[in-house]
Every structure is written in C-alpha cells, then in structure tokens.
Amino acid sequence: MMRRSPSLLRRILLPRADGRRSVTYMPRPGDGSPRIVTLIPGDGIGPLVTGAVQQIMEAMHAPVFFETFEVHGDMPAFPPEVIESIRRNKVCLKGGLFTPVGGGVSSLNMHLRKELDLYASLVHCCNHPGLPTRHENVDIVVIRENTEGEYSGLEHEVVPGVVESLKVITKFCSERIAQYAFEYAYLNNRKKVTAVHKANIMKLADGLFLESCREVATKYPGIKYNEIIVDNCCMQLVSKPEQFDVMVTPNLYGNLVANTAAGIAGGSGVMPGGNVGKEHAVFEQGATAGNVGNQKLVEQKKANPVALLLSSAMMLRHLRFPSFADRLETAVKRVIAEGERRTKDLGGSSTTQEVVDAVIAKLDWVSHR
C-alpha cells in the first residue's frame, strides 16, 4: 500500500491560504492498491481524448489499468458486459457518446446513470490562470441530481399530436443530493450552498426539492444556505458569477447551469466532471461535449483533451492516489498558463498530441520541483 509522507498529507489536508482545500473529495473505494478502471472511448473525439489520458497515465506510471469496451451512442442499450465491468471495477472513465436527437432513441448516458444509480453529477467550473475570460474569481461547483426530474425520460403520446412528459421529484432523491452537496461543501471548506429551483411555478415538485434542501441545511450551521429561482440564476451567472460557490439543483436545471458556468469560466473543453453513486463513479468531460460529433476535429486530430485530463485527476483522487492527481493537475494547468500549446477552442492551433506531449514534459517539471 502506498504511504503518504507527512509533508504530502499536510499539503493535501490543510486549507489553502484562501481557506479552501486544493483537493476535491468524493466517496472513494479501495485501499490505495493498483486499480482496474473501465474505459469507454466513446464516439467522435472520444477515442482521441481518452487516448490522451492513457498516454499520460502511462508516462506518470500511475497504478491504474484500463479495461476497454467499444460503446456507441446509437446502440439500443449498454452491452451487459460493460455494465458488469463497471460494477466490478467500481470506476469508469468515459469519452462522449453521441445521443441522437428525436427518433425515439434513448440516451445511453441516461441509461448508465439509472442503471448504476449515479445520483450526483459534479462539475467544477473555475478560471484557469493564463486563460482569459470575461469574469475573474469564478470557482463554482455545480452538483446536480442525476436520476429523476425531466431527464427520467417518462414521456408518451397520449393521442396523435399530444405528448405527455412527466417530471418526477421524490423526497428521497432530493434529500440525498442535498446531503451530498452540503457534505461536499463541508469537506472542501466551501462557505455557501445555493439551491436552484422554480418553486414559484412548480410549487409541489420544486417545492419538495427546496423543503429537502432546507432540512439538510439545518445540519450544517457553519455553511451559508440560500435559494435562487433558475431564471434569475442564469442572469446572475452571466453578470456576477463570483457570488456562487456550491450550487445544488434538480436534474434539468443542473445541466443548464453547469454549461452556463462552464462557458463563463473558459468553455466546456477545460471543465472536469464526475457522476457518482453510492458504489460506482463515472468520470467524463464535465460540461456538455457538444463537439463529440465534430468530424473535422477528428480528421485533424485537434480535440481538446484538457477536460478529460482534469476529470481523470478527479478520478485519481477518488481512487486514493492524491499525489498522482496533484502531479497531473499541476502539469495540465501549467500548460494552460504558458499558452504555447492550446487547441483551437482555447485560441490556439495545436493538435491533441501536441497538448499531450506538452503535459508529459511538464510532468517531469512537476516531479523535480
């Protein structure tokens, strides 16, 4: 088993000068021994960016081994052997899966979340030094309920030309996502949790969500709690995003809020994320991977690997490899800060491989600091 030196423990566990720990704590299985992780390269740019992660894990000699499966968004369902692999390994790293629009084809992403009860989606949207944005001091964690609400896919045609779509909110799911958000805030020394809702209109459904958040908030008196209506939230995000810290949301709102926050803080290409349940976790690009099907990026091999690299750092912490996570995250952020190797979405012209090579070069710099 890996042993942590006192200096490393002190660096990991003590808050930074600004009062926040530098580590994202999430439920972590295992005892720190080498781990097998299920890998789903996905569609479009997915194999490019997951390949980047594999190269860098190998360069770091990280104690992680991948069990790879081919899955594509036009499949009717996840193959049983893939689900079994994730159940066995507990952790999965996934590239984007293309979800057809309309046509009655269900989302495999949604299928995976339901099958493994990955009830909490976490997206960390923050500024990166050297990457200019319109707003500074953005450091927002969006925690989204991942299994119910509009994303349940409970819809049917009542009569020809009339479709009914159901929004289901339960006290159980609302309480556990609120509990996750407050526990995350507590463990990461965050100061405020904001519940996003539309209870002024959906008085029963979103009202139940708010009621659950309020009940959980009473157990954490050291964390400030407030509420905001989702439309006002979007306006506040684009005008004064630095006011937000941790945000907890029902399913659909969380998707919109996380992508808005990601756009404010530098774009989806640099935002890590994870989907977590009681037993399993799937790590992937945090904000919507709208460029999954961009064939030009695939042909030119210029997909941005940063988001998935940072997601893999979250995965390493989840697996109890904090020193590897710190080393990877530091190398990636230094490449961003220097600005010499960036893909087109970040204002550069580099290929995926050129970014990977730059990160690998910085790994040696990090290890010899």
Counted by DSSP, the helix tally is 12
CATH superfamily of the largest domain: Isopropylmalate Dehydrogenase
Question: Could you name the CATH topology of the largest domain?
Answer: Isopropylmalate Dehydrogenase
Q: Quick one: CATH class of the largest domain?
A: Alpha Beta
How would you spell out the order of helices and strands? HEHEHEHEEEEHEHEHEHEEHHHH
Order of strands across the widest beta sheet?
2-1-3-12-11-4-5-10-8-9
- The computed structural class is alpha/beta
Rounded average pLDDT: 86
* Percent in helix: 40-55%
Percent of residues in beta strands? 15-25%
**Spatial separation of the terminal alpha carbons:** 25 Å
Using the CA coordinates, give the radius of gyration: 20 Å
CATH architecture of the largest domain: 3-Layer(aba) Sandwich
Poorly predicted residue ranges? 1-17, 19-25
Number of domains: 2
The geometry reads as globular
Q: How would you sum up this structure, described in words?
A:
The protein has 2 domains: 29-118 and 272-369, Isopropylmalate Dehydrogenase; 134-264, Isopropylmalate Dehydrogenase. Strands 2-1-3-12-11-4-5-10-8-9 form a 10-stranded mixed β-sheet, with helices on both faces. Strands 6-7 form a two-stranded antiparallel ribbon. The protein contains 12 helices and 12 strands. Mean pLDDT is 86; it is low at 1-17 and 19-25. Helix 7 runs parallel beside helix 8 (251-264) and helix 11 crosses helix 12 (352-367). The protein has 369 residues and is α/β, with parallel strands linked by helices. Strand 11 (272-276) and strand 12 (281-285) form a beta hairpin. The protein is globular and about 55 Å long.
